[in-house]
Amino acid sequence: MLIVFACGPKKEAATTEDYGTPKEEAATLSGGDVIAQGESLVKASDCKTCHHKINKIIGPSQTEIAKKYEFTEANVKLLAEKIIKGGSGVWGQIPMSAHADISQPDAEKMARYILSLDGEKEH
Questions:
Q1: What is the DSSP code (8-state) at residue 91?
Q2: 108 to each of 8, 15, 37, 58, 93, how far by Cα in Å?
Q3: CA gyration radius, the chain
Q4: CATH number of the domain residue 9 falls in
């Protein structure tokens, strides 16, 4: 279970079970809310060990990822799968660790946040 910390009592991050399918979730939550949730999930994860928001560390910066991929539903799903399963070869030979403990809905929120970093809106 993932807990997102904020001022006040602890709150669980919303999951697909809370809002239905991802498309229904996007309709239920405003885009900014989903992106804010994704940002919280990224900040609470180990992503920052390899991916800085602006600067390349071990892997590309989150902003470089946003610039490489259009902000589409297909790319949200692609990046969510990469977050969960890991991989290598797209940005070099250093493999990205798998994160099997991250749910598909949470990985999609994280991907939406990352894809928003270049200012592009989802289409």
A1: S
A2: 26, 10, 10, 22, 24
A3: 14
A4: 1.10.760.10
Number of folded domains in the chain? 1
Look at residue 122 and tell me if it is in a domain. Answer: no
30 phi/psi in degrees, rounded to 5: -70, 155
Q: How far apart are the C-alpha atoms of 43 and 71, rounded to whole Å?
A: 20
Of 30, 17, 32, the closest CA to residue 106 belongs to 17
3-state secondary structure of 87: strand
Q: What are 93-102's pLDDT values in tens digits? A: 999 999 999 9
Closest CA to 23 of 111, 105, 81: 105
Q: What is the pTM of this model?
A: 0.74
pLDDT at 106: 98
CA distance 60 to 62: 6
Q: What is the pLDDT of residues 19-61, one digit of tens each?
A: 334 444 444 456 679 999 999 999 999 999 999 999 999 999 9
